[in-house]
Structures are given as structure tokens and as C-alpha cells.
Amino acid sequence: MEHVTLDQWMDRTGATCAGVASRLGLSPSYVSRLRAGLRRPKIETMLDIERMTAGAVPVSAWVAQRRYPTVNDATATEAAE
Q1: Measuring CA to CA, which of 4, 9, 18, 73 is 20 to 30 A from 31?
Q2: d(CA 49, CA 54)
Q3: Domains plus CATH for the chain?
């Protein structure tokens, strides 16, 4: 089974933020932020998303997803210079 992000899964299945929110008991605006990678859900929500997507969006998809550099990234860059 191919693992994808929530955004990719929603695109592929035609799911809407309102529909996903309703199934998970969340607000559509929060789902929109999750989809855009602007928020990382609690572990319970990650598990709910994994179950809702039949494993297509696993918990590991959230752990591996990083949009912004961390403090360690900045330190590594400075050390390399």
C-alpha cells in the first residue's frame, strides 16, 4: 500500500475538508490547516486519520512531514560553514 499525505489522499479520493472534519469530529478549518501542513495533529487524531484512510495516511506520514527548519537544521548549517 502506498502511503501518502492527507492532502494527497484528499485529492485522490475527492474528500472535502468538511467531510473529513465531520468524520473525525474536527472543524473544517482545522482539517484545512492539517491538509496544508500548517498544523500537526495530536497522536489520537493521527491514529483516527490512519483508520479513516484505511492506512493510506499513516502516523508516520505526520512524523516525517516537516515544512520548516528546526533548530538542529540551523546548527548543522552553521557547523558546515
Answers
A1: 73
A2: 8
A3: 6-80 (1.10.260.40)
